[in-house]
Amino acid sequence: MTDTKTASKTDVIIIGAGPAGLMLALWLARLGVDARIVDKRTDKVPKVCFWNPDESGLIRRDNRVVNGRAGLSRFHEVVLHQGRAETFFLNAIRDSYGPTDGVGAATEKTATWLPQRRIAVERKVMPTFLSIDEQTAGDADAYPVTVKLRHLSEAEATPTQMLSNVQDGLFRSNLNPPDDSTITPRAAHDGAGPAAAEDEEVVQCKYVVGCDGAHSWTRKALGPEFDMVGEMTDYIWGVLDIIPITDFPDIRNRTMIHSATNGSLMVIPRENRLVRLYIQLTEVSVGSGRVDRSQIKPDMIIKAAKKIMSPYSIDYHYCDCRWTAYQIGQRVGNHFSKLNCVFLAGDAVHTHSPKAGQGMNVSMQDTYNLGWKLGLVCKGILRPSVLSTYELERKAIAKQLIAFDHRFSRLFSGRPAKDILDETGVSMDEFASAFRQSHMFTTAVGIRYQPSVLVAAPTDSSAGEMIGEDDVEAQENVLQSQAHSTSVLSTACIVGMRFPSHQVLRHADARPWQLHHKMPSDGRFRLVVFGGELSSASASPPKLDRVNKLGVWLAGTLLPQLPTMSPMPGTTNLHGGGRPGYGLQAQNPPSIIDILLVYAGASDEGGEVNSFSLLDLHEVYHPFDPKLGHDYDKVFVDRRSHHDGDGKAYENYGIDRTQGALVGVRPDGYVGLVTSLDESGWPEVSKWLEGILEPRANKGE
Amino acid sequence: MTDTKTASKTDVIIIGAGPAGLMLALWLARLGVDARIVDKRTDKVPKVCFWNPDESGLIRRDNRVVNGRAGLSRFHEVVLHQGRAETFFLNAIRDSYGPTDGVGAATEKTATWLPQRRIAVERKVMPTFLSIDEQTAGDADAYPVTVKLRHLSEAEATPTQMLSNVQDGLFRSNLNPPDDSTITPRAAHDGAGPAAAEDEEVVQCKYVVGCDGAHSWTRKALGPEFDMVGEMTDYIWGVLDIIPITDFPDIRNRTMIHSATNGSLMVIPRENRLVRLYIQLTEVSVGSGRVDRSQIKPDMIIKAAKKIMSPYSIDYHYCDCRWTAYQIGQRVGNHFSKLNCVFLAGDAVHTHSPKAGQGMNVSMQDTYNLGWKLGLVCKGILRPSVLSTYELERKAIAKQLIAFDHRFSRLFSGRPAKDILDETGVSMDEFASAFRQSHMFTTAVGIRYQPSVLVAAPTDSSAGEMIGEDDVEAQENVLQSQAHSTSVLSTACIVGMRFPSHQVLRHADARPWQLHHKMPSDGRFRLVVFGGELSSASASPPKLDRVNKLGVWLAGTLLPQLPTMSPMPGTTNLHGGGRPGYGLQAQNPPSIIDILLVYAGASDEGGEVNSFSLLDLHEVYHPFDPKLGHDYDKVFVDRRSHHDGDGKAYENYGIDRTQGALVGVRPDGYVGLVTSLDESGWPEVSKWLEGILEPRANKGE
């Protein structure tokens, strides 16, 4: 235990180890940043499940809608338990520091890549005090935030509900009072009195991120202007995870049942034989805004389900020990950050119903957006002003989510319309139509960030619809990029949106790869050089001049001005699949810019892929390291694969095979710049990166 | 330590914990059989790598061959390190007893499924004595094999080569003397004298399987008639795993280089930046059959590589600490079993060069074939006479492997022919052609087991080429099945060959599955009911009579005669993906026969999949359990999927959409019977299973 007189230091403190906090911790672990993540609870906390729609059909009487739009992504939607998601994160954070299976790695060699301290969740640790020194808040060398952390006993860290013998599924439901409130009084009740000084430590840090849920302590500590704005509805829903015993024919499909008078029910098939039921509890009174929680038990929830599903039967033997109930409310905070020193993410800054499966998703996306920015600022690579883009980008998404949820909750919970004249009822046609339209948002593939220092606005056109664009507030404090995009060069790489993935073949071995697999989340920006047609049977020797001229400029002018990435725990530069921690060190640290060349294979070449050798290309496309040799993993060709069909990458990216394009991609995979391959485009690349990155030889290097 | 006077008992002892031994242990763990697996070495043993061809092209000067035949399998070939394969096995064996991540499972409930003892590798344990009581060898209740196991000290269990400071990559190379020989003398040298009685235990068991490698102690213990037969060649090859620093253009392709006079070299790209080089060592003398091992060091091997690859350069900074050398030899044992009590598998009974990447593969296939047979006999489900099929099936494969290897080694190691008149040289055209033809064998997709009690011979035709059929010796002691197949009913399900996998949609939720995913290795036989077209827009109500009539016979007549599967550690009947150990118990144990219905969706139905409800089908196709409800995971339809294309299963299985077929599949996924869906086929199903399985109510139940 640290003495309160002596403050320790760390770059970042993450408060709360749910999916949002763990996503952030994973970024910082990958980037080798010194950080801590604390959670006031012990490990015993029961998990609340969230869900995503799976790939089956949405079915209601006489209507069936296919779930998901074909071709939107190569991945399908799945139902994933929050506990499993958290386990993936915990494992990935651990693996960031090197392999643990002892196979294929020289473990001892990884030691020099490690930061002083590995990030691991510190449980039973609760913040009790937070203050920001506004004088030093902009200073990259300062530690302007002071946090007091209290170390709890096992009893203090165990929720009251867990201590009783009565199973109470309402723990963490929003029908409950904030669970923080149980901690201090009980400690006092134990006779320990106010927290003893030796149970507290003081930490000075650069940044604090509150990922501490709907009852966020961090948010409250920032003052009343951080309160969330919005309302609770009168709709109460119960949730039950069971192995159903039923004759209802569509129990393994995602099914929405609107009964005439008993309320609505949603069936979400889960893994194995489990099914999640969302059941509207019409018999629970919401009276004066306070719900009588004592009414809500599994027996009462299944009874409501039986009424709604009649004349079919439904019962269960196995319950997954997970049931809860909640009151639908939609609220969002006005501020996502204070002085760009303290940030709020996930439920701490926006809450809504879980109906669209966006709770865990949007929370993780918040910190996926914030993590690389914070990490690269801590490493002295990114300009601190870029941190303003977090609120700009994520508040707009939160508002879109609330609007989406508001519309959907009404459709889910409302009484079905009796006929076309029944104006207060919900039209079942409108419901099915809204569901169909929702996929771009629920998959997050459709979200678009507005122009900023990270996203160079197109000069030629707006190039694509921005979803919910009218919700976006003007953010005067966020710098605009000096660079400009030319959106016509790639009709599918849209600035502010996710860079799409298509199959290409690796030049060195003709093996097919999804281009995303070559763009791991390692904190690097990427310049994807769509070099056009480099080789053809009619052109001998192949026309390599254009990409090689660009190579000379990249290697000779651009890269020497930009920072490099070391030190990092795992250097994805060393291995194909992006698995961190392989442990072999390159002699030279990688640049912050990863350059990938994707050329168009001429269609008249038949089976031959390599009509020129990799070494005919400028070295910037196959970086040579004295210890590791050439990098064979940076040049790809768009052509048909022997085993795996044709990715048609140029066609799918909307890029002309003769003209080509340069696409700048942010570390989170969003398109930041689209410009020309030729000299006219080069200054745009420089301007874009200069607005974002600190110059080389800064103090962080 | 067990006293030598008191023998303990176990059903199976596996000697050797390499891939073959671990594959066997995994089967027995999954089936809940009481077994032990011992290995004389500690965990520190360096791993020898084996390889499979990957999906890139085989390249030699002016010639390029695509590696692998498109469409043969939905999987690609990969290069996989033996150490990683062993790690997968160790994890899978552990997971057989229930989940370890604590997520989504009620762990405490799994307890009743566990056998008394979990299988885990016992290291530093060496067999010293083995005898079979021939009187009781056929008695299922007896423990006819006596084994003495000696528990070694850490020093004894560490190979001499590991104790010295000189790195010696020849450990476990076949250029070395047997490494067993170092153990006993050193123990005596330590002053401990002969093994003390308290270091030994005596175990009585039903079966022993020797998976203890080329110098197999088990094989020697069985006597000289078990010696392997065959020869060593004059070819010496070195193996080196490095990150190459080279200007050779095809270093990331699987490349074969025949130099004019300096020998041959093969490039096998591995994971990350690693490359494996197989290098012919022409300067090592083989003189009087003994190789001068002291000549062979990494420097010498890379020097040989430089000569062969000239004028290109090759060097390295990182070596994967794995190098070795071996002399090519091809030998196979005459007997794979003694009295069906003691079995030999893998290198213990066949050795060959690693050139075709078949060393680890064929060894694992041996025990994949033996494991379920042994496990089900121990559980009283399978007739013990079925054990004779192990030698019948696997000896034929071993002989094919030796013949294949003999041909390939000559092609790899021989001097290239100067011209067409150079008869002692190797024709490069012949080499490329042989490589192309080898895929059916190296992928194991093409292997075919001959008729036996497990494989009901077709009466109508031979239905397909049997590879190496003329190598198969008549095995008089193996029973032939009383049942007969009608091969014309399915032109792609060929008896004795692997049941192929194609995509079908699950009736309950229209989700696409590869049919193999519904056929996990859980020890159960499968009856795949290709029920033909059950529904069509023109037939109302749908024509379910045929499959429901079969259902009545299956549920009323066949299944009650056959054994059930419990107890097992994980019951794959409970969950979709075959993941063992979910921990929820069905009230009723599953039958030894798993019934899957695959019907043909009528082509005129448009987007509708389910024109009838699952509950319209006989219950045998959706087994009902009072605790778990209906099983929604047994009925599938052949039709186009919304997201994932059209599996065209009936077309690909070569089954008529009107006629249908019944296909019986062994627990290892091989086709055992093809017969008619109608009454004429039912007696064949009965006869096939009666020849293999003990009747119900046997002592094992």
What is the secondary structure topology, with strand pairs?
The structure is a homodimer of 701-residue chains.
Chain A: E1 8-15, H1 19-30, E2 35-39, E3 57-60, E4 63-66, H2 82-95, E5 121-123, E6 125-132, E7 145-151, H3 154-157, H4 160-163, H5 183-192, E8 200-210, H6 217-221, E9 228-246, E10 255-258, E11 264-269, E12 275-280, H7 298-309, E13 314-333, E14 337-338, E15 342-344, E16 350-351, H8 359-378, H9 388-413, H10 428-437, H11 439-442, E17 503-506, E18 512-514, E19 525-535, H12 545-561, E20 593-601, E21 624-625, E22 629-630, E23 635-638, E24 640-641, E25 645-646, H13 649-653, E26 661-665, E27 671-675, H14 682-692
Parallel strand pairs in A: 1-2, 1-8, 2-5, 8-15, 19-20, 20-23
Antiparallel strand pairs in A: 3-4, 6-7, 7-8, 9-12, 9-13, 10-11, 11-12, 13-16, 14-15, 17-18, 17-23, 19-26, 21-22, 24-25, 26-27
Radius of gyration of chain A: 27 Å
Total number of helices of chain A: 14
CATH topology of the domain at 8-42 and 81-222 and 335-382 in chain A: FAD/NAD(P)-binding domain
- Report low-confidence residues of chain A grouped into runs of 5 or more: 45-63, 100-114, 162-167, 184-195, 463-476, 570-582, 604-609
Please report the first level of CATH classification, the CATH class of the domain at 8-42 and 81-222 and 335-382 in chain A: Alpha Beta
Averaging pLDDT over every residue of chain A, what do you get? Answer: 79
Shape by Cα distribution of chain A: globular
How much of the sequence of chain A is in beta strands? 15-25%
Main beta-sheet strand count, sense and barrel state of chain A: 8 strands, mixed
Number of beta-strand segments of chain A: 27
What is the fourth-level CATH superfamily of the domain at 8-42 and 81-222 and 335-382 in chain A?
FAD/NAD(P)-binding domain
